[in-house]
Model the fold of this input.
Amino acid sequence: MSGPAILTLAAIAKAFAGIHAVRDVSLAVGRGRILGLVGENGAGKSTLMNIIGGVVRPDGGTMLLDGAPYAPASPGEASRAGIAFIHQELNLFSNLTIAENIFLNDFPQRRFGPFSLIDRAAVARQARALLSEVSLDLPPETPLDRLSPGERQLVEVARALRLDARIIIFDEPTTSLTARETERLFALVARLREAGKSVIYISHILTDVAALADDIAVLRDGALIEAGAKAQFPIARMITLMVGRPIDQLYPPRKSAPQAAVLLEAISLGATGIIRDVSFALHRGEVLGIFGLMGAGRTELARILFGLDSHETGEIRVEGRRLPARSARASIRSGIAFITENRREEGLLMNGTVAENIALAALPRLAITPAELIEQGRIRSAAGALAEALNIKTASLDAPAKSLSGGNQQKVVLAKWLLCRPSVFIMDEPTRGIDVGAKYEIYSIIDRLAGAGGGVLFISSELEELLAVCDRILVMSRGEIVGEFARAGFDRGRVLAAAFREAAA
Amino acid sequence: MNRALYDRVSGYLLRHAAAIIFIVVFVYFGLAADNFLSAENSLNIIKQASFTGVIAVGMTFVLLTAGIDLSVGSNMYVSAMTVGYLLQIPGLQGGFGVLAGIVAGLATGALFGAINAACIVYLRITPFLVTLATMVAGHGLVTAITQSFGLDYPAAFTSFGAASILGIPIPVAIFAAVVAAAHIVLTRTPFGRQLYAVGNDAEAARKAGIATDRIIFSVYVISGLCAALGGVTLIALVGRLNQTFGVGKEFDVITAAVLGGTSLFGGVGTAFGAVIGSVLVQMVQAGMVFVKVNLYLQPMVLAAVIFIAVFFDSLRGARLEKLKRRFIRMDAPNEPGASAGKEIANPP
Amino acid sequence: MAAIFPDLATPRNISNQLSNVWPLLAVATGQTLVIIILGIDLSQGAIMGFASVAGGFVMATAADPNLLGGSPLWGTVLTEGGGWLAGRSGSVLIGVGLMLVVGGLVGLINGYFIARFRMPAFMVTLVSLMLFSSAGIWLTQSQNIVNLPPEFTQLGSGDLVSFYFGEKVEATIKRRDILSFLTYPMVIALALAVAVEIMLRFSVLGRYIYAIGMNAKTAAISGVPVRRVIMVVFVLSGLCAAVASILYSARLGGGRPTIGAGAALLDIIGATVIGGTSLSGGRGKIVWTLIGVVFFVLLGNTLNYMGLSAFYIDVVKGGIILAAAALDVARNQLLAGQAA
Done:
């Protein structure tokens, strides 16, 4: 790193219940520079940033902010010291307006006799100025729940600017942004640097980090592996450092080929304001990718296919038979599995045991009819067999799901569905938020499922993985399918162009 | 009917369900009972509503944080007892003594609220359980102390309850002042706005640097203070404290707040909602007396009104969710009238 | 406690102590299920009162027109000659069945609106509470219905097996020397609790109940019929309240609209929570609730023996509930610390 450091960490350490989350990390953040922080899940990035942001206190080590000792006891103290932390889950409040969100911590106030009240005129005036700085062209009194994820991110940045932050931490800022919003955010980050602010940028998307950062720091198992100027860190090297072993292949080879038989067929599905005229066929043994920007209607389509939401026109057929009742239960019975994009909220019982989670969807199968009683032994042996087949790393089948790593949690979700013996797998962002090694395992499982005659509908916003894993890719935009590419015709640029509908312009 | 029009009309009706029920009830009783709309009766309804209303304002603060305070009825009883015992002292039966008694009563209520708050904030026990326990404990304590005997209040105090300022009865004036203060606090102070943030997502609020513990502590103290205020003004009117004072009041108060549009899930609600809710409850009760509904049936009618309001509120929630789902963001170059046709980009 | 207060250990007292346990166990069993799915059922007390009234109306063998003449059901269901079923064979069986049906129906109404329209359980069951407690009072005009048939009242105190302590000098044995070992209320309440515990542990429905308590969204996507399970749980809660109503009404020998009023709510929820069922959902067992109920009842009785007024007992009970809840919170935090 060149130039003086604004923030220096020395030998920072933090353990939770005896497990080291961060050990002996010494790192400097340069003034007016962007530090890219990379590492697998569980490498300690979040803990380290939570220490800087005052969310948790370190067990050991010291920090210097602009030469002065810095030990925030709360997020409030950190923000007063000039450190803004933009969490992955945005800290905004949908029941307040844009301006209220920006000024929540220190409203401009005016005295009315003995009372001091919010100065609404000043709030509006200052909010407009901040919004124009982040080029968000909306009235400050707009309720936040009318904003898209990208616009909300800009509101967060405006809030950081309002606090006159010297250091702004972005934790995975682009996961819910469209490509256009991402571009806008990057331009803003570059402007922040020009204005002399320092930025810590955390992301799984290494190409973004490579494009944006001046310096790179790599964490693994809670320790700092290496840090330095960007030039020393080509992407391949970043990956090697992150996983601790050279990975020449991020993706397993696709071993099987699709067959002719159609498993799942959508015929001009439509739902007002959600999807329009969606038709496609998923074949036996096929991995069919669905690519699209955030809000293109991919997740909505998946929910409709699985029967969680209703559609108004068209029909869905499984192996030629029209799906009757529209419910998750009926879909499961017809052999459909749905791996949702949100593991914690929709995929798992976080407080439930691994065995409980694996057995959940197949309980009616495991029951001894007609009293619907369950034999514990059957559940355990079925769950145990799958945990072994999928290589789930857990202390025991009775460990709570929340004690597992992201990758192993995702494998528990897969195991849950495999126990139902489905033929169609709808996977919505199955590799989101899991580390490189676990991703490889998930891709292998997908390949094996297709090889065994299943059909996989693979929804993702990471184009690279779709190009590597799929036999065919459909592109969605604004609720419609706007492009289709077979494996032989895969082309990064053309898929993206279709998603942006630029080809038409 | 035209679908878009239907959507708009039904959306409007659902959004203003509480106000519409209010008007329907008002018009119905106005037509059914001759003197219902008389100035005297209207003022009487507002006066009767003001006791519940004051407490409902405090409850609104609590509900905004997604909490609940079941102990308000018990708190009324405790505070009223404090006033009662102080005013038994001969030296305190004059004007100044009454004032001291009232202040002591309010302080008792705030302390009661602070005990709830401490259990909720420091021990992290669910508000429902904390306030259920203090509800029973508080009532038991007072009844044990008074040994179930009634307590009488001196004339100086009861005349305060029956007095008026500029023709406005004291309870109504207090109610108006509390509502106005609450409205300003909720809409125009940082505390108020932060309160809404905490109710929306407490964890996010903490991360955003808001002193959530302090805010949650405050709302239970405010609720306790409002309960004491309601209790003290009501006992000044009643003049005699007995064992049933305040019993079941918590449900009236929660009902009034919820009828006024305050959500049990936090983050949604206003001070004026408490006015609408409490007056609505009182109007239904008074109206039933006017049209001579069987005394035993009156609670059932009230239950039906509450049910309708909560039912419409849930329909509105479901509808909002459905509309949100429809909200597909148009990103990308999106010229108006752009072709919606499909383009298959060169299948190989 | 028996060492300090020898009276507590006399046979009669043990029976008495336990006689308060069984109805509370029945109703708390239902509340446990509701709390596991993150709900709350405020209407159980009202169900108990209403079911008691309903049972009284049909089963009474005689009625006093001076007391009940004002009832809207006077002359139709109830007359001076007793209730509608008075004197018919199987009247107790039908009466008990009717009480169960009443409990189940109220539960079904609660469950339907909570599950189908996603209305908050607190408000829905509060409305039920108002509706059915005032309906019970209206139907009886605030009176109690007495003269219930002995076949019914023995459900409240009759014993299957009992032991006699003391010398057999007289032909008739004094009641207080008998230790009622197996009483009807005990058998009924325990059978209900065991059945529900088996359902929770070993059936698909039980698994579904826990899953919904932990995460209803995940459960729904995994094919759990969430709405149906919620309805079933509230129906069970109503049925449990009806069973408690049967036991209480039989013991008190009358149909009383106020049987579950007042502090009953604290007892029901307090006993459940003291047992360890978590108000944050997904965790709870009927065995725990049994322990909570026994503890709660013994506590009340002991304090009573110490000469504490009933009102101070409420204060202590409130404190105990807070302590139990604080313990639960501490345990959760400990577990969370270990998992992180």
Notes: The radius of gyration of chain B is 24 Å.
